[in-house]
Structures are given as structure tokens and as C-alpha cells.
Amino acid sequence: MTILELVQINLLSPMVLAFALGITATLLHSDLKLPDELYTTLSIYLLLAIGLKGGIALAETSLAVFWAPAVATLLLGIIIPVIAYGVARKIGKLNVADAAALAAHYGSVSAVTFAAAQTFLDTVGVRYEGFMPALVAILEVPAIVVALLIAQVAGAPQGGDWRKALRELLTSKSILLLVGGMIIGWLAGPRGGKEVAPVFVDLFKGALTFFLLELGMVAARRFRDLPSAGLFLLGFGIIMPIFNGLLGIWFGSISGLSLGGSTILGVLAASASYIAAPAAVRIALPQANPGFYLTAALGITFPFNLAIGLPLYYTIASWIVGGH
Amino acid sequence: MTILELVQINLLSPMVLAFALGITATLLHSDLKLPDELYTTLSIYLLLAIGLKGGIALAETSLAVFWAPAVATLLLGIIIPVIAYGVARKIGKLNVADAAALAAHYGSVSAVTFAAAQTFLDTVGVRYEGFMPALVAILEVPAIVVALLIAQVAGAPQGGDWRKALRELLTSKSILLLVGGMIIGWLAGPRGGKEVAPVFVDLFKGALTFFLLELGMVAARRFRDLPSAGLFLLGFGIIMPIFNGLLGIWFGSISGLSLGGSTILGVLAASASYIAAPAAVRIALPQANPGFYLTAALGITFPFNLAIGLPLYYTIASWIVGGH
Amino acid sequence: MTILELVQINLLSPMVLAFALGITATLLHSDLKLPDELYTTLSIYLLLAIGLKGGIALAETSLAVFWAPAVATLLLGIIIPVIAYGVARKIGKLNVADAAALAAHYGSVSAVTFAAAQTFLDTVGVRYEGFMPALVAILEVPAIVVALLIAQVAGAPQGGDWRKALRELLTSKSILLLVGGMIIGWLAGPRGGKEVAPVFVDLFKGALTFFLLELGMVAARRFRDLPSAGLFLLGFGIIMPIFNGLLGIWFGSISGLSLGGSTILGVLAASASYIAAPAAVRIALPQANPGFYLTAALGITFPFNLAIGLPLYYTIASWIVGGH
Amino acid sequence: MELTTVKLVTIIAEAVLEERILHDLRQLGARGYTIGTVQGEGTRGVHASEWEGKSLRIETLVPPEVAEKILQHLAAVYFPHFAVVAYVMDVQVVRGAKFGV
Amino acid sequence: MELTTVKLVTIIAEAVLEERILHDLRQLGARGYTIGTVQGEGTRGVHASEWEGKSLRIETLVPPEVAEKILQHLAAVYFPHFAVVAYVMDVQVVRGAKFGV
Amino acid sequence: MELTTVKLVTIIAEAVLEERILHDLRQLGARGYTIGTVQGEGTRGVHASEWEGKSLRIETLVPPEVAEKILQHLAAVYFPHFAVVAYVMDVQVVRGAKFGV
Ligand SMILES: Nc1ncnc2c1ncn2[C@@H]1O[C@H](COP(=O)(O)O)[C@@H](O)[C@H]1O
Ligand SMILES: Nc1ncnc2c1ncn2[C@@H]1O[C@H](COP(=O)(O)O)[C@@H](O)[C@H]1O
Ligand SMILES: Nc1ncnc2c1ncn2[C@@H]1O[C@H](COP(=O)(O)O)[C@@H](O)[C@H]1O
Ligand code: NA
Ligand code: NA
Ligand code: NA
Asked: ipTM exceeding 0.90?
């Protein structure tokens, strides 16, 4: 398949179309409003379901296969925030807090982008390692810690409480559900998993579609901040994920991941967090401007990855890892 | 099947029974209360699911088959509010605002009554055109516009903002989800639809059951306003839908719809809106009494259509269109 | 299977693991919080689904088979609160109100413990009578009435409104949904039930898993009251259910229930209410300390039954009723 | 614009009391009320609302003598056993008559 | 600590009016607002919010002259046909300038 | 009926601060609080609460000196970087001692 065909398949998936419907609703000032509680419920469901499936797969994975991708993922979580911080400071001329905030977001990971990548590969018919959710969990935290450390070292003006932020980060709901779900899946195994599959497997794509409807509305609300965000942020929000995606695919391929697995590690690296990172950054670096990092992560990078990024990273991975 | 058998089948469906349970809960002053957020979630889900399935079907429909029912539906949306207004003014002696408000509600359509009609026909084993949701979308708006125009022309005392009402009507959540869902279904096609079918198809009847539980409670709360509503409203709430239903069935049969399709167009014509219309009317005609139009649409017509109307319209359609 | 194997199977089920995850979340002070509306929705869903399935089964049950277990259950609902009250007064030295409150909770029943028991038996592969949900409904109310009567007779200081409490009890949402669901299932029969099965059957275990995640958090919040609850409450919360469980199994076996049915009647007797009873007691016996009865029912007995009780009662039932 | 001073009584109460308190308010002369859902903590330990449902925050605009009666009633009937807190303040409204003043 | 007195205007309104009232508040000089969702009952019968969605409770901290204008506007535009109630009171804040005082 | 005057401090704050502010309130001498969820807009741009979760509206009934300390603390710690607004008013309660007066 050519990249254009892939983009088309991706854009015409119900999930991406629901995202577009959400954007449309906001741009038309529709009174459509999903209850906050639905959003929260769906995000809990998605994280738990991702973890659960990963845990079941992990139980059947030998350490020999798993360690190299795990280490590669950890390295990504350390390298990417450093690079992102440098870019934001040097090219973007941002202050320490804003640069570190961006680094935390782009180093960490978006579970929904991951879920969309899985669905995309399923549709295209490409296999990937079942333990990928474990890599999501591994990639989520370190980058945030690294970014906050950088801010600390670079002397961001005080005001935040980064010890507290770290503690809350490690017990934050996204980590807890992802890791908790994995442990449940690992302990319950395929038999236990089958009992809850009608909810946690069969409903997954539909729930994701609903969630993306809401995220489309959220992203579109960020669009109005785009003009004031400036050209740098626009460029950063598109070029940074492509660069990170390349890095992720490359790390994936040398650590032995399949084509599908490398694509997903690329997507993970390319994605920007918007659950764990904003909460931690708000507490540790309150002087950083949320209008800045939320706009970049949700208003630019997320739509880009969802619409163009998925087929793009897959195409690049095909070149690097070799055809399927 | 005789009409009595049909009524029995209909009354013993889980959906209608759930509606009765909701009524019972309210009459018994039970503390049962469905969260508002659940109600909102279910209504979003139902509209999106209806649209989605319609869009998939529409993609496989030729314009040659579709245009006549579409025009017939549009005509219904213009004729019914005019008749309803006349009846309310002449026989009911209502003031301009109240009459126009009723006209808007009875000209427009109730998506849940539509869903119940589909389910009823499925149970009885009668086929209908897949593109019926498109007719729901076509019938929803025009009648409201016509009714507001009538009020304008007939010189309802100012106070409302009907331009604003029209703008909000066209971007209202029910239109947006129905039309948006149809476009998604149309673009994603059967393959994309299959991915989300476990949520948007398999769960449909169960979700409808839940929704009707809530609607039963809402309808029963309207019952206490029945005494003050007077005899006219009671008669209007039952005879108007039967008349509109006849009109819809007739229009359906001459525009080439099947027995099932004609039944559904009859149901659409007979149903009274309680999502789009109340919101638009409240803004455009604030002087109209909501106790009036909500009681008629939700407290009288909706229960009547759900319990008696569905088998009745189907029986009438069998006579007009011919047996199956 | 030995009891240890059974305990292991039970502990490694996704449901029990989700409960443990909920406990962990609270103990770690995680920011994980399920929306109240989700909790309410799930509890409505579970009660309705339990009732529905019971009603369908009841339609196929002859009175000859049903009457003896029904009478046995009713007797349990009268005997248990009397014993529990005596124990709480004599051994626990509690005041009249607190003792009666405990009696109401332990005499009544927890629908979720019932659901977990069904799931456990399904996993182990043990059959049980389909009409068990009817016994849940029978056991729910009488014990609460008996306990409130005891308090009245024993002269609990006034302040409550026990007539009002009784009226609200009979129309409370748990009774209404359970009995209402049973009537719907009974009337709609297997054919109607099949239409809504994707929601009310297939999703049941997954929904229960979600619900137990929330209940784990609730139970863990009660843990902090354990120290002040004292040794008596701890003992009561574990020994009382074992005693009641024995009684239930015995009554079940002599009333002709199968091994699975006797196990479930044991579980019902052993379980402590935390939906109907707290609401009724709060109104009728406001002077009773909720920190007391909620801590016992939710913080001690529920986790004990869920983790250890289910396999324990099944093992005991195997001895009493005979192997399978 | 002429404003009238009325009393705003705010009541925080466990959800289980909703119907009873609203009934009482009507009996004592209040012509309307507004309810929001809240959560809270006070000097009393756990109350029934803590685990199921939230507490209620009820506001009612009333004439001074009704406010006084409401506070007296709450203090007598609910303060002893229930988690109920109430306070009253002066506010200005446009249409005093609507609230019985 | 020096405190400034500003006016707190509270508006209870059916949800359908949200956008319009917020727009009006901004026009009349309010620099911020806080919205909660509530339910209520008054002297008027059913209103649109009663069955779909709840009502809104809007609070805005404003200078006295803005409060006056808001009440006048509400009374003229919304009181006749909509279920809207409003009241105003004095409160103390730290940074008066933030609210236009 | 004898009423006591206490201070009602109302705080609007982004949800991420919940635990910290409640902890601070307890430290400063408040014996209880009531929380509702709200949404709002002010002079500051987007804050974290805007897209995930809502803001909080925290009310606490306290003696005047505690109210003063709370405002000072909020102004020093949260006003610079967070979307926090607070105001205080006098209200009458039945049992002043319950609130430390
Ligand atoms: N000092 C206070 N300030 C504000 N709300 C309070 C205060 N004390 C109690 N409350 C509220 O009243 C409820 C019952 O309080 P209590 O009876 O003291 O447990 C609490 O859950 C709070 O919502
Ligand atoms: N006396 C009152 N006290 C508090 N809120 C009121 C009062 N009267 C009316 N309201 C609120 O204002 C809304 C509209 O009232 P009304 O226009 O009288 O129907 C009600 O739904 C209540 O939320
Ligand atoms: N003038 C005001 N009146 C009422 N609430 C306000 C006002 N200004 C700010 N707020 C609330 O305080 C929050 C933070 O405001 P700000 O720090 O100005 O962005 C807003 O989201 C509003 O909920
Ligand atoms: Na990343
Ligand atoms: Na119609
Ligand atoms: Na029991």
C-alpha cells in the first residue's frame, strides 16, 4: 500500500472521523457537550483495558524477548525530553519552565494515540508484539521526571512542589490503571481475561470512537489559542513528533521489535502526553503556561499524529524494518 | 397477526416494560434516579448509532430510490406544523405562541420513537429501508422552522430571538450527531462500521431499554400536569399523532417505501420531538408555556406512540401498502 | 478441588483483582476517582440485570420447586437479624440503635456479593437454580423491618421516622430494580431477553469488575475507621457471616436447593447489605453511628466474603449437600 | 433600581434528607429553593452520604421571620443526629414580593 | 491585610440561557464568572431545564455599579419569560482591582 | 433564637489544588469545609482544569481571625501562579462554637 492509501484508510476510520466530528461541533458552536463523567469513565476504561490486554500478553512473553525493547523505551524516555528541552530553549527561546513543561509532555506518552495506532495496524492487518502496553507504562513516567529535574537544575524560579509532583505522578491514575491493569491481566491470565473480554476487548474500538469525539472538541477549543501560540509552537508540534517517531522506530528496530512493534514504539515516542504530564507539570512548574503546553500537545500534535502520523510512521517503519 | 397480538408483542418487549417500570418508579415516589449524565450519554449514543447505521445504508442506496421518500418527508415537515397550528388555534383556542410551539413539536420528530419502531419491526420480522435515519434527519428541522415562521407572521409578542434559535437549531446536538453519524457511516462504510459494531449495533437495544427507563420517569413527572392541561391537550396528544401517522404512511406508500418503511415514516410523522424542538422553542418563543408542549409531547404522545401507536401504525400500513 | 485451589481461583479472578486494585489506589492516595455517576449507573445496571435474568428463569420454574427455598429464605430474613442483634447487644455491649443497625445490615443482602458468587460458580463450573435472584429480593427487606421493629420494642430513643423508613424501603431503588427487572424478565421471556442480552448478559462480568474497582476504594476508605471500631466489630464482621453462611447453606440444602443453589443461599445469608439497609437505617435510626455499620458491612464483611467467603461457603456446601 | 433585602438561608445536609427538608421548607413558608450537590467534612465522623451519593447544598430566599423559623426547625429536628449545617445572610433582590417580603 | 468590598451577584437561570447570560455579563463589565449546576423550584411552573439538563448558578464578583446594571438588565430581559432569579450581596476580596474596583 | 456571626470564606480553585488547599485550611484552623464543582473564566487564560475536570468551589465557616489567615495564605501561596479566587462575608449560624467562635 502506498502512503496515500494508508492515509486514506486511516482518515476514513470511524475513530478519526469521530475526532473530526468533535472538531466540527466546536467550530460550529454546537451545544453538543459530552458529560465530564463520560470522559473520565472512558479514560479509566481505556487505560484499564490497554493494561489488561498487555498483562495477558506479558504473561506469555519471555524476558529474553522483552528486555531489549524495554531498555530501548527507557532510553527514549531519557533522551527525548533532553532534546525537546534543548530545542524549546535554543530555537524557541522559551523560558526554563515553559521549555521543561514541553519536554515533559513530548517525552511522555499518550495512551489514546497508542490505542489508535493499535487499531490502525489491526485495520491494515499488521501484527505487533502483545506486550506493547508494558512499553507505554515504561515510557510514561521517566520523561516527566527528567524534565522536572532539568527545570530544577536550570533554576526555574521556585513556586512548585516537585517532590509532591513526583509522588503524585507515581500514583497518578494513568500509571495506576495501566500498571494495575497489567498486573490483573498477568495474574488472571487468558482464562480470566476471557470472562471480561466482552467489555474490555469487544467494546474497545467503540469506546475509543466516543472518546475521540470528545477529544476532537477539546482539541478544537485549543485551536483558538493557536494564533497567540506563534509559529515556533506550530512547527514544534509537528516536527518534534516526526523526529521522535523516527527515533522510536529506529530504537524499536534495533531492539528486535517487529515492523508493527517498531511502528508502535515510533508512535509512542512521537505522541505527547495529556493526562499524566499536565497534572504533574501544573504542580511542579505552576509558572509554566498551560495555554502553551496544552495547546501544543492537544491542539497540534495529537490531531497531527492521529490523522497523518499513524500512516506516516508505519511507512517509515516499513522502510527501516523492511517490508512485511 | 391481529392488531391485538401486535400490541401484546409490543407491550411485552423489554423496552416498553422498562418504560413502564420508570413510570411506576415515579408514581411510587421511589428514590430511583438515573444520573443526568447517563441520560445525556445515552441520548448521544442513540443519535450517533442511528446516524451511523443510516449512513452505512445510505452509501448503498441509489438516488433513484431515495429521492421520492426524501421529498415526501420534507413535505410532511411543512404540512404537519401548518395543520397542527390550525388545530391548536381553532379547536384548542390556544394563543399564537402556544399553538406554534405545539406545531413545532408535532411537526418535528422523536429519534427514540424511531428507534423503538425499528426494534418493533425487527421483532415482528418486517423489513424496512436502511436509509430511514436519513429521513429522521430530514424531518427534524423544517417543521420547527415553519412553526417559528408562523408565529412570526401571526405576530406572537416579541421577546424571543428566533434568528438565534434557527442558528442553534441547525447546530444542535441532535442534528449534529444524526447527520455527523450518517457522514461517518457513509465514509467509513461497512468495513469501518464493523469495527465499532459491538458498541453501536450490539448494545443498541439494551441502551434503548435503559433510556426508556429514564424516559418513563420523565413522562410520569409530566402526568401530574395533565389535569391542568385540560381535555383539549389530551385529545390533541392522541388524535394528532394518529392523523399525522396516517399522513406519513400514505406519503410513504406513494413515494415507494416498503410496508416497513411506510410504517416507520408514519411513526416519524406521528412522533413529537422532545430534544430539538423544546430547546429551539424556549429560545424563540419564551412566552409559550413549556408545561404545555412538554406535557403533550412527553406525557401523552410519547407513551401513546410507544405502547399503542407502533402496532397501530403497522396495522394501518398493512392495509394501505398491502400485506407482507 | 481443594479449598486452597478454590481460594486461588477466586483471588485471581479479574473481579477480585480489580477490588484489590481499588484498595491499592486508596492506600496509595492515588488521584484515581470513579465518577459518582458511574457508580450509580453500574449499581442500577447490576440490579436490573440480576432481576432480568432471574425473571426469565422464574418464568420457567414451577411453584413446586420454588416454594420451599422461598420460605427458607424468608425464615433466614427473620432469624438472622434476631441473632445478630443478640450478639451485638450481649457480646458487643452495643447500644440498642447500633445493635439494631448491625442486625438490619447483616440480615439483609448484598446484591454484588451475590453477583460475585454467581461468577465464581460459573468459573468453577457449578450449576445453580436460575431463580436465585428472586431469593435476593425476598431476603432484602424482611430483616431490615425486623431489625427496626426490635429497635422500636427495645425502646431506642426517638428521633427517627420508621414508618417513613419502611415506606421508602419498599420503594427503594434496589427493590424496585430487582423486582422490576424480574417482572420485565418474566413478561418478556427468553425471546425478549435475547434482544437485550448483549447489554444485560454479555457485559455483566466486565461491569462487575468496574464496580468492584470502585467498591475497593470505598472499602479501603472504611479501613481507616477500623482501629476505632474495636476488636468486637472486627470479629463480628468475620464470624457473623460465617455463621450466617452456614445457616443459609443448611436452609438451602433442606429446602431442596442444589449444591450451587445452597452455596448461593449461604452467600446471601452471609452477605451484609450496603445499599438498602444504610438508607433505611439512616432514616429510622439516625442515632446509630454510620461509622459503625458501614465499616462493618463494607470494610470488613464485604472484602472477607469476596476474597475468602465464596470458596469457603462452596466448600462447606460440598460437605453438607454432597459432592458434585 | 430599588432593591429589597431578604434572607438567604443555606443548608448543607446529607442527601438522604432531601425530601424531608424540602417539605419542611415549604411548610415553613419558603416559596422556592435551589439545590446543588457538594461534598464535605465537618466535626462529625462519617455520615451516610459519604459513601453513596453526595451531600446537598440547599439555598432558599425568604423573609426574615421565615429564615428564623427554618433555623429553629433545623436546630430542633436535624442538628442532633444528622450531618446538617446551616447559615443565613442578607442579600438584595429586585422583586421582594416574589420571596414573600 | 487590606480587603476591598465588591458585589457578588448570584444568578439562578435555566441552562438554555447560559451563552446569552455570560455574553451579557461580559458586555456589562464583569471580568469573570463561576458556574455551578443546580436544580430548583420556584413560583413558576415547569421550565425547559426541568426535564433536560439542570439549571445554572452563576456567580460574578463585580463593582457596585456593574452589579446594578446586571440586575437591571436581567429584570428587563429575562424576568418576564424565563425562570431566572438573582440576588446580590457584599463580600470582601484581597485584590479589588482584579474585579474592576 | 440566638445567632452568632461567623465568616464564610469561599474559594474558587483549579481542581489540581484540592488536597493542598484542604490541608492548608485544616492547618489554619478551619473545622470543616464544603466543596462543589464549578466551571469558570477570569482574567487569566487557560488553566489545567479547563480541559480535564472542573474547578472547585470550597466554602468554610470560620472565626474572623481564621478567615484573615486563610486569605493571607492563599494570596501568598496560590494567587501568583494558580487560578484561585477567594472572597469572604459575614453569615449567621446557630451554633457558633461548632465553627470555633
Ligand atoms: N466549618 C464548616 N464550613 C463549611 N462547611 C462545613 C463546616 N462544618 C461542616 N460543614 C459541612 O457540613 C457537613 C456536616 O458537618 P458535620 O455535621 O460537622 O460533620 C460537612 O460534610 C460539611 O459539608
Ligand atoms: N425563594 C427562592 N429561593 C431560592 N431559589 C429560588 C427561589 N425561588 C426561585 N428560585 C430558583 O429560581 C428558579 C426559577 O424560579 P421561578 O422563576 O420562581 O420558577 C427555581 O428553579 C429555583 O432554582
Ligand atoms: N470576577 C469574577 N467573578 C466570579 N468568579 C471569578 C471572577 N474572576 C475569576 N473567577 C473565578 O476564578 C477562576 C480563576 O480566575 P482567574 O485567575 O482570573 O483566571 C475562574 O475560572 C472563575 O471561576
Ligand atoms: Na512521546
Ligand atoms: Na412528527
Ligand atoms: Na445477610
From this structure: yes
pTM above 0.80, yes or no: yes
C-alpha span between F17 and C31 (Å, rounded) = 12
Smallest CA–CA distance, residue E98 to chain B, in Å, is 33
Q: How far is CA F36 from CA B144, D83, F14, F33, F58, in A?
A: 38, 17, 12, 10, 7
Q: How many CA atoms lie within 13 A of D81 on its CB side?
A: 20
Alpha carbons within 13 angstroms on the beta-carbon side of residue C306 total 30
CB of D99 closer than 6 A to ligand 2? yes
Mutate to test the pocket of ligand 3, among E33, E35, E93 (most ligand atoms within 8 A of CB): E33
Which of C36, C40, C282 is opposite residue D16, by nearest beta carbon? C282
Residues in E lying within 8 Å of F, measured between beta carbons = 1, 3, 6, 8, 31-36, 61, 89-95, 98
Could you give the 3-state DSSP secondary structure of residue A114? helix
Name the residue at shortest CA distance from atom 17 of ligand 2: E83
pLDDT of res. F48: 45
- What DSSP string describes A248-267? HHHHHHHTT--HHHHHHHHH
Nearest CA to ligand 2 atom 16: E42
Rounded CA-CA distance C195/B203 in Å is 10
CB of residue D49 inside a 6 A radius of ligand 1: no
Answer whether B108's CB lies under 8 Å from B277's CB. yes
Residues 6+ apart with CB under 8 A from E96: E4, E5, E6
Helix (H) or strand (E) segment spanning residue C45 = helix C36-59
Question: Does the distance separating the beta carbons of D41 and F36 come in below 8 Å?
Answer: no
Q: What is the mean pLDDT of residues A86-103?
A: 96
DSSP B12: T
Q: Is residue D34 in contact with ligand 2, taking CB distance under 6 Å?
A: yes
- CB-based contact D51 C289, cutoff 8 Å: no
Q: How many Cα atoms occupy the beta-carbon half-sphere of A240 within 13 Å?
A: 32
Q: How far apart are CA C132 and CA C144, in angstroms?
A: 20
Residue F83, ligand 3, Cβ within 6 A: yes
C-alpha cell at F35: 466543596
* Cβ-based contacts of B286 with chain E (< 8 Å): 81-82
The torsion of the CA quartet F63, F68, F73, F75, rounded to 10 degrees, works out to 140
- Asked if C92 and C233 count as a contact pair (C-beta separation under 8 A), the reply is yes
> pLDDT, tens digit, for every residue of D46-92?
554 455 558 999 999 999 999 999 999 999 999 988 889 999 999 99
Tell me which of E14, E37, E41 to substitute to probe ligand 2's pocket, judged by most ligand atoms within 8 Å of the beta carbon.
E41
Residue B257 confidence (pLDDT) above 60: yes
CA of F85 to the centre of ligand 3 (A): 6
Residues of A in contact with C16 (CB under 8 A): none
Beta-bridged to residue E13, according to DSSP, are: E56, E84
Phi, psi of C322 (to 5 degrees): 105, 150
Q: In this predicted model, what pLDDT tens digit does every residue of C125-156 receive, in sequence order?
A: 999 999 999 999 999 999 999 999 999 888 76
Cα–Cα distance list, B282 to B144, B287, E57 (Å): 12, 8, 19
Nearest-CB residue to C205 (from A52, A183, A195): A195
- Return the residue of B nearest to E53 by Cα: B36
Q: Count the alpha carbons within 13 Å of F35 in the hemisphere toward its beta carbon.
A: 18
Burial class (CB in 10 A: 0-12, 13-18, 19+), E56: buried
Confidence label for B158 from pLDDT (cuts 50, 70 and 90): low
Q: Whose CA is nearest to atom 7 of ligand 3?
A: E32
Residue D12 beta carbon below 6 angstroms from any ligand 1 atom: yes
Do A243 and A60 form a contact (C-beta atoms < 8 A)? no
